[in-house]
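sorry for the late reply, my laptop died twice this morning and i had to redo everyting from scratch. anyway the thing you sent over, i finally got around to it. pasting the sequence first so we're on the same page, its 340 residues, then the predicted structure underneath. double check i copied it right bc i was rushing
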Amino acid sequence: MKLKHSRCSGPIRRLSLLTLALMVLVVLVVGVQVSAAPIVLKFAHNQRDGHPYDVGARKFAELVELKTNGRVKVQVFPNSVLGGGQQAVDGVRMGTIDFTAEHTSLLEGYIREMGVFGMVHFFEDWDHFWAVVDGDIGREFESKLEKHGFKVLGWFRNGLYHCCTRQKVMTPSDLKGLKFRSKPGSTQAIMQDKAFGTVSTSVDYSELYSGFQLGVVDGMFQNPTNLRATTLYEVTPYIALTASTYATNPLTMSLKKFNSLPKDIQNAIMEAGREASAYERAFSEKTELEDVEFLKQQPKVVFSYPNKGVWNATWSNVESWAKSTYGKDLIERMNALKQR
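ok and here's the structure:
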């Protein structure tokens, strides 16, 4: 007896083959996703291993990898191996470097008003400073920086800057005529010269030690952590605790690179930036206290404790200039955030 073929056998066979093909396709796609190489991004900065910037950068790299399940890896390049601070900033704008965290003064070439973050003797304390940086004013600067190709992911703590010189100084008038390290033409340099009568002298961060040795520069405003990290305290042994400047380094990413990434990775990077910034700030604050104690133990270092009121009064020398340069409204808004 002959068995009759079911009329449905052809469609069923075709359906089975289609299902099998889809299963194979799914396996192939999943296999490709599993084996796909991670996106590798570059983070450049100008400080040594273990410096707060470096610790913050490595924390950021750790968080990015964790939050993207390994799909993105961030390589950290310290010690200016990819170029100095300005090269790193310009590289991020152009997209040749993916991330950096450099001083706000290096962004003045793009936004002149960035100089407000380095105003001498203006900020009352860290609470006042962070109220400006983390509030509406900081967010406005973030939007302005985006127009120049920078995506701000957070703000690192750069430290509290004091007057460091080759000779002892006690009052602002002692600085008159001294060659002070700063970028000539920058708003911060102009403000510094107006406040103290100094002569702005451009010396790259990596060349500061020899610059002081050779007398190319006489002084600078610098924080204790950087003094220790670079051993600059050996050539600027006179440290007047003037608390002249509160400073921050914005953690920036190439906007071009940021926009090229999937939305979920963008969100992960933004989260990592905020968390890494908080981590770096706490680490920086702790490290700075330790570095002050270290410097006090150095036999050639001479600390002085000048009258802060006298130094803070130098703000009156530049206040009108700052208002005309940065905008009266901006300065008054920042001033209103002081603790009352």
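Residues 1-5 have pLDDT under 50 and may be disordered.
thats about all i looked at so far, will dig more tmrw
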